[in-house]
Amino acid sequence: MADIIAETDRLILRTIDEGDALEQDRVLNTPRVMARLGGVKELHEIEAKHATSRALYAQEGFSFLFMIEKATGELVGHCGIKRVDHPLAKNQGDHEVGWLVREDRWRRGYAEEAMRAVLDWAFGRVCAPHVVALTSELNVGSWKLMEKLGMMRRKDLDFEDPAFPPEDRTTILYSLTKEQWENAR
């Protein structure tokens, strides 16, 4: 059974439950939504990520979450915290935050609303000293939200990922400390 981690004005953020992969595949796994994230995934890849997320939550008390729209009860995205685990990243093990919103809910402020709650969770109950966020250099909407949240660009942590197409190979990082988050609020 899923745990509710946070509620915002419009969203319930809950843990990912067994059996949620089909809904994520149906709602979030589209060419436009996944364009800067390596493309559409196979169902078994989503299931594996969900298993990892559930294990991380059981082990460390944080993970990625489903964003459920209160007004409709529908899945509108996912967001949360994990450990940086990319083999090319220079900051393995840091707390990494991220988000994804379904296409028909873009430009409604859901990502910002959810991430404000996730950052409160990261710096509150999770006790992260700092968080990072990774994105493609071309994912302008993503890094603009990072900046809106008070995150600072960390060019020293950028890396090239040959698994992505040439235009998306540069992975850029932003970071935010607990103190910066508290001062920005």
TrEMBL record:
<feature type="domain" description="N-acetyltransferase">
    <location>
        <begin position="11"/>
        <end position="179"/>
    </location>
</feature>
<dbReference type="InterPro" id="IPR016181">
    <property type="entry name" value="Acyl_CoA_acyltransferase"/>
</dbReference>
<dbReference type="InterPro" id="IPR051531">
    <property type="entry name" value="N-acetyltransferase"/>
</dbReference>
<dbReference type="GO" id="GO:0016747">
    <property type="term" value="F:acyltransferase activity, transferring groups other than amino-acyl groups"/>
</dbReference>
<keyword id="KW-0808">Transferase</keyword>
<protein>
    <submittedName>
        <fullName>GNAT family N-acetyltransferase</fullName>
    </submittedName>
</protein>
<dbReference type="InterPro" id="IPR000182">
    <property type="entry name" value="GNAT_dom"/>
</dbReference>
<dbReference type="Pfam" id="PF13302">
    <property type="entry name" value="Acetyltransf_3"/>
</dbReference>
